[in-house]
Structure formats: C-alpha cells, structure tokens
UniProtKB/TrEMBL annotation:
CDD domains: RNase_HI_eukaryote_like. GO terms for biological process: DNA replication, removal of RNA primer. It is an enzyme of class 3 (hydrolase). Pfam families: Helicase_C_2 (PF13307), RNase_H (PF00075). This is ribonuclease H. Residues 136-150 have a biased composition (Low complexity). Residues 162-309 form the RNase H type-1 domain. The keyword Nuclease applies. It comes from the Eukaryota. It comes from Diaphorina citri.
Length: 310
C-alpha cells in the first residue's frame, strides 16, 4: 500500500495489486475548496474595512455579484457588514436607496460638525472667562453681606419680570482658577436684605464654571423653599446659560458625552441643576454683562467673592 498527499490536503491511498483508490480526509484538515474560500473572504473583508477607517467616516459598499443574494454567501462577510446588506432587484431602486443613504449621512455629518463647532466655542469662552477671573483676582474686592437661608416673610418684596417670574441674580467666583490652592464661592441675590439671599463655598471641582452652576442650583432651591415656582435667573455666565439652553439636551442623549466622545465635565452638578429646574413651573435665563451697571449682578458677585475668601 502506498500513500501520497496532494495540494488539496487529501490523502490518496493505493492498495497493492488493485487499481482502486480510497480518499481519506485527515481529521482537522480543511478541504481545498474550503481553504480557498476562507482566503477569498479574508481578502474581501480587508478591502471592505478600508471604507471605514476613522470614527466619523461613512460610506456605501457595492457588492456587484449576484452570489451575495444568497444568505450562505453573506455569512462569510464581517458582522458589521453582514447585518446591513440590502438586496435590490432593480437599478432604479438601488439608486434611490443610495441617494437616501447619502442624504441622511450628510445631514448627520452637518449636525455633528455644528456640535463640534459649538463645543470649540465653549472651550474658548471658558478660557476667556478664566483669563477674566485671573485678571480680576489682582483687584481689591469690596465686602458684601452673606445671608443664611431662612423662611421668607410675607412682607418681603421681590422684583418681578413682565412674565411674573421672580428675578434672582447668581454669580460664581474662583480666585486662582485652574491653579493649585484655588477656592471658589457662589452668590445668590434676590434683593436688598432679602432672607433668601445666600452664598457659600463650592463643593467638588473648584472652578469658576462649577461655581456658576452651583449658584444657579442654590437659587432654585431657595426659591422652592419659599414656594416660588416661577424664576428668572440673571447670570453673567454664557457658559451656564448655553449649557441649559443648548448643550445639555444633546449631552443627555449622548450618554453625557460630548461630540468628541469625551465625558462632560461637571456632570453631577449639571444633573442636579436639571433636577432643580424640573421642580419649578417655569425657569427663564437671562444674560447680563459681568462687572457692568447691574446692581443685582454686582451684589451677587460680591457675595461669591466673600464666600470664596477673595
């Protein structure tokens, strides 16, 4: 008996004194056709992968081969492609599907680019605010009074806006913002000698932005404690106002991650701010220029500086 091995991985066995052959496939070895098919799919999937190389890439892959109509043939494709294969029966249907796909992806791409631009502007605004705080730290601050939270008496008067919202000014201060040894405070000002006025040191991350957020949180808590459920918060923080009005809904839907995939800073404080907003009937936000002619803003700033130990 003699044996030989051919290129397809098959042992051919010839028995003496006969013209008969027996084909034996050794255990663990592939048939030649199976091996070639695996190599073909490997090369195909490597080529398909070149369509998507980066996070924001997108594209359409055209498999112009009728064999891919078969589910068996599709099983050899990578999973990320396999589950998205769409068979079309006509050229017109194919072109319409392709146009719709490109249109949807362009809309998504434009939205992602818009969000990235907004977040880039946010970072620039934070840097400008930080620079302003550092420049202001060299100036002598005036003292302010710090009132503790207490029950509001019926005789207390509030400033109301045209939509019947109680007006409150909030501010944050952080000497040496972003540096070792920094301290931060917030100030909430409802009016002169108003028992709802409050100020305090910032907990958590010691930054100017966190101080602004915590000021708004305490303003809403103070209002709620006095059964006030319609509030107009006036702040010189464009960062905080844009967080509430523009960015937080997107961050929420994205698992509290920014467009670049990085986690949102001050997440816990922003979530608490959302919770407090949800306790109110109506909350309005109004930007006022810092260190300007607004008496309420200047008083909130004084209170925040005092609380921060400025």
């Amino acid at each position: 008996m003699t044996q030989r091995f051919n290129t397809e991985g098959v042992f051919w066995t010839r028995f003496p004194n006969t013209c008969q052959y027996s084909v034996v496939y050794p255990t663990g070895l592939l048939k030649g056709g199976d091996w070639y098919q695996i190599q073909a799919y490997r090369a195909l999937n490597q080529a398909l992968g070149r369509c998507i190389r980066h996070r924001y890439d997108w594209g359409a892959i055209l498999l112009v081969d009728q064999r891919f109509y078969s589910k068996n043939s599709q099983q050899g494709l990578s999973k990320w492609v396999r589950n998205q294969v769409q068979n079309t029966s006509s050229h017109n249907t194919f072109m319409e599907n392709l146009r719709n796909f490109v249109r949807r992806r362009m809309e998504i791409q434009l939205e992602e680019e818009r969000v990235k631009r907004e977040e880039a502007n946010l970072n620039e605004e934070e840097e400008v605010m930080d620079d302003t705080d550092r420049a202001s730290s060299s100036q002598e601050s005036t003292g302010g009074t710090q009132s503790q939270n207490s029950t509001v008496m019926e005789t207390v008067n509030f400033t109301m806006d045209p939509d019947n919202h109680v007006v409150v000014f909030t501010d944050g201060a952080c000497p040496r913002n972003g540096k070792v040894g920094a301290s931060a405070g917030y100030g909430v000002y409802f009016g002169e000698n108003n028992p709802l006025n409050v100020a305090g040191k910032v907990t958590g991350r010691v930054t100017n932005n966190n101080a602004e957020i915590q000021g708004a949180i305490h303003a809403l808590k103070q209002a709620k404690s006095a059964n006030i459920d319609r509030v107009c918060i006036k702040s010189d923080s464009q960062f905080m106002i844009k967080c509430v009005q523009e960015w937080m809904p997107k961050w929420q839907s994205n698992g509290w991650r920014k467009a670049d995939g990085k986690p949102v800073q001050n997440k816990e404080e922003l979530q608490e701010l959302l919770h407090q907003i949800g306790q109110m009937e109506s909350v309005k936000w109004e930007f006022v220029p810092g260190h300007g002619n607004s008496h309420g803003n200047m008083k909130a700033d004084e209170m925040a500086r005092d609380a921060a130990g400025w």
